[in-house]
Amino acid sequence: MQTDKDSTLIKDAAQGEVDVGIVLGSGLAEALGSAFQRVAIPYGDLPSLPFKSLPGHHGQAFVGLWQGKRVLALSGRAHLYQGFTAGEVTANVRLAKASGARALILTNAAGALNPVYDAGDLMLIADHLNLTGCNPLLDAEASPRFVDMSEAYSPRLRAVARRHASPEHRLREGVYVGLVGPSYETAAEARYLRTIGGDAVGMSTVLETIMARSLDMEVLGFSLITNVVGATETTHEEVMATARASAPGLAALIEKALVEI
Description:
- With 261 residues, this protein is an alpha/beta fold.
- Helix content is 29%, strand content 25%.
- β3 and β4 form a beta hairpin.
- α4 packs across α7.
- The chain is globular, with a radius of gyration of 17 Å.
């Protein structure tokens, strides 16, 4: 099985089983600090990871020691809007688990639905709304298939994140809405998503969380708020620029939190 072969390569690079997996959202790879002693493995050497190039997503797995933990940081994820299936979108989670990871940190760039949020804020994901119309557990081989999602995002790890956050992180906590994309939301859609409880919206993360919980992994999620939905015209360039500017703060918070993960 290709996942097993790829996980062996990762464990060899890590010199042991991985402790924590991290999925790096748009622009975050550039913010990884020198404290993360890592080697890079191109996705081309990891055939179990489907990938199509996107700005801000490098298609590399970084493996090494960070705060005394063996870490697998994945720069580049598959998206439904690129034509991938729910199973392909969550191949990264299965690889992290096969490599030994017991906890998964998911990061993304997201638009704010909550009117008190500003671009540059960091949102700790407390819960999500999966509006993609997909679920990776529809796969007949997925086991278990009936997974409790009442505490999808680990209360313990959220408490760790809050404990290590500083005022400079402008940390919020809210509900992430996952859509297929790739178009941004209409004004009516934004009002609807806010009405049903969404605080931020994006095009990833929810399927990865479902898969991680099915594999009994603790999940910690962060959204970099890159724009306020409906406030001004949204462009991909704007989203990327804000993500890159905010990414060092998120990387610093992850570095502090890793001690307790």
